[in-house]
Write a structure and sequence with these properties.
The complex is a heterodimer of chains A (261) and B (80).
Chain A: E1 22-23, E2 28-29, E3 33-35, H1 40-44, E4 48-50, E5 55-62, E6 69-75, E7 84-88, E8 90-93, E9 101-102, E10 107-111, E11 121-126, H2 134-137, H3 143-148, E12 150-151, H4 153-165, H5 188-200, H6 204-216, H7 221-247
Antiparallel strand pairs in A: 1-2, 3-11, 4-10, 5-6, 5-9, 6-7, 7-11, 8-10, 11-12
Chain B: H1 3-15, H2 19-31, H3 36-64, H4 69-72
Classes of the chains: A alpha+beta (261), B mainly alpha (80).
Chain lengths: 261, 80
């Protein structure tokens, strides 16, 4: 099973970049695979995006360029539990509620061309930390460094095929709220916060500082994701401009500010 | 509830942060291994990167039109 329905192993990457291939669009190592059904960009448009593994929805957002409409999930079970799956350039996304669980085989969105030109699925699997970490080094990372915090998507898919064949445990693909923690004077939302820090092992002392900082900036979790994306977009823009200057032939206006394919 | 957890709830109430958003905030921060100091760092970084982009865009524009007096800021140049 692949994250783009009807893509097949031999054609899975037709029309895009392979895993760890140098991407001229990203000016660096391609951290995932561009899945394509081999039908051309219009043929792929609207094709189902599939959950390869049982996952918990972590984040979804949209940027005009770069990843376009994209989302990532945390893998909750199986051989790569704790990894994150990143789906980019979607036309639409089905599961947008934080913490919603999806089962292997669920449709989580539809293939599109948001943030890019040709419809395809840019699919990345990172080890234990969200895909936004890629932006911290992105194009400056060596191939080995990218490989160190990612998993070959084809290996990931094969491992979950094997896992399923061996009889994976049943997964209830229904949104599950965090179990509230009893508290004598806590509102339901405060109980949820308490349950969340305990579930994640996030230091409550750090959470207090985080909340104060976020309150001062009138920001929330989505703001954080937006800032990370903005840093990534600005970093790529700088590298693009520096390359233009070095070549002495600016082409900055001819390409998107950030292009990820 | 631990003392730190109590202080967390107290901070939430003190600053009037929407409790319904707090869980998502912590989840996002935890996923990135970040904290309040990280947020301040990102804001500063965005400012610095934005300034650098503006600087480079000006340099690219100057390379694109090296003979354009307007690009050199030549006040005596006739208006286009």
């Amino acid at each position: 099973m692949f994250p783009l329905r009807d893509s097949v192993p031999t054609d899975a990457t037709r029309g895009g970049f392979e895993y760890l291939e140098f991407s001229s669009y990203q000016h660096g190592t391609h951290e995932g695979i561009d899945f394509n059904c081999g039908q051309g960009s219009e043929g792929d448009f609207g094709t189902d995006l599939i959950s390869v593994a049982p996952m918990r929805h972590a984040w979804a957002g949209e940027t005009a360029t770069g990843f376009g409409r994209h989302t990532w999930f945390e893998v909750t079970d199986g051989p790569h539990a704790g990894a994150y799956c990143h789906y980019a350039h979607a036309e639409s996304l089905v599961h947008v509620d934080p913490d919603m669980l999806v089962a292997r085989g669920d449709v989580i969105g539809h293939c599109g061309r948001s943030g890019t030109v040709h419809a395809h699925l840019h699919f990345v699997v990172t080890k234990g930390r969200p895909p936004t970490w890629w932006w911290y080094g992105g194009p400056n990372l060596t191939k080995d460094e990218v490989e160190a915090f990612t998993i070959d998507p084809l290996v990931f898919c094969a491992d979950y095929d094997q896992w399923a064949e061996n009889g994976m445990p049943a997964v209830n693909a229904v949104s599950q709220a965090v179990e509230p923690v009893p508290g004598e004077d806590l509102s339901p939302a405060e109980q949820e916060l308490l349950a969340t820090v305990r579930e994640l092992g996030y230091p409550a002392s750090e959470a207090a500082g985080l909340i104060r900082q976020a309150a001062g900036l009138e920001s929330d979790g989505d703001s954080i994701a937006g800032w990370i994306n903005e840093i990534g977009a600005l970093t790529l823009r700088i590298q693009q401009l520096e390359a233009d200057l070095a070549e002495g032939a600016p082409v900055a206006d001819a390409v998107p500010s950030v292009a990820v394919t | 509830m631990t003392d730190d957890e109590r202080l967390m709830i107290d901070a939430l109430r003190e600053v009037g942060y929407p409790a319904s958003s707090a869980s998502g905030l912590v989840r996002q921060a935890a996923g990135l291994g970040s904290n309040g100091a990280s947020i301040a760092g990102w804001i500063n970084e965005i400012g610095a990167l934005t300034a650098r982009v503006q600087e480079l865009e000006a340099a690219v524009a100057a390379v694109a039109a090296p003979d354009d007096p307007a690009q050199r800021g030549d006040a005596s140049a006739p208006a286009a």
